[in-house]
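U., I forgot to send this yesterday:
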Amino acid sequence: MAEYCITGATGYIGWKLAEYIYQHDQSARIVAIVRNIDKAQELLSDKAELVHTDLTDEQQMNKMNRNFDYIIHCASITKSMEMVSHPVEVTRSIINATQNMLELAKRCRLKSMVFLSSVEIYGDIDCTDGHKVLEHEYGDIELLNVRSCYSLGKRMAENICYSYFNEYGVPVKIARLAQTFGDELLPTENRVFAQFARAVKEGTDIILHTDGSSMGNYCGIRDAIAGLLMILEHGKNGEAYNVVNEKHTMTIDQMAEFVANKIANGKIKVVYEIPKDNKYGYAAHTGIRLSGKKLMELGWTPQERFEDMYSEIIRKL
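Result:
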């Protein structure tokens, strides 16, 4: 019987991972480490053993002595407003939680661990010629910018993962996950794809607070879960993998127009209301296009259509 530990199980990815494993492996035991026990009970009470622990608290984490077979570390602050208003806490959360989970992994008879990173670690890379970014390519990240706490924190966490693999042999892999949606949304989800879906549902115009020229990389939730489990089972220790459907790379304004015209059948339109400052905490402009080649070479093939991803979440709103 395989025993899985999933952090961040009240977040979208962790929740859907736990659901998938529960549905497809009846013999598996799932332990979800959570901060919000009430939310976890609502989402996962019948699917996982819930452990209420602060991942950033070293003393609490040192008391946890479980021999997990697999660890999937999804927990992270993902709200842009939090990154702008509390950058110190965001950085501390990413670094401390990751290191504490790696210490737990070091104590386990672990088969594999996956750390969920972000495409934001790549920084500024020019892909105007259509170039698709591979896992070894990196651009600049602005140091003197509070919003960089997330991307730099994730970069540091990746280095910590590699250090634990290199020094202690922890079998950890890194998943650089594109923005992921489909099936359904958590009520608290407020990234642009969720805002666009709610606009369709409510019959209101899509409001953009930027010029919409920033590139987005996306992946359907079912494809993402399959990719994460592929990395967990077949990925190479100490290495990183992009999880992205290359067909679903587009600028924000392109996605907005697609949703307004194709999903809403032209019944709504795209409106621009751009503030003078970045009061919404959006990530820095990026033109990055990700390559999914490395993960696909393991045998992963993304299959979800963009319009189906949207139709599913709108239907369940």
